[in-house]
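Write out this protein's structure.
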Amino acid sequence: MPAPATTTKGLPITYRLFPGNTYEGGTLPHMVVELTTEYSIKNILPVADQAMFNENNLSKMEERNVVPRSSYNSLISRISCIRTVEVGSDGIGIFHG
């Protein structure tokens, strides 16, 4: 199971291949820890399906000051109002509420 990490422009930073039988929910904190320690990256915005942001993962990310819970909750409330995404020929998505 691949776990990629990219810049905001989509350029690759690193990736990890986890065994196929790895519980997906545990990969997010692992990647966050690696990015903050091995690569000294401070500003991380994890992007994953909502199930990855469970209580355990949120606590681990808060310990690293990656995504404070209040920021995460605000982000989720904004995302949950999105109904459709239209992708233009340039590959840029336009979100419609």
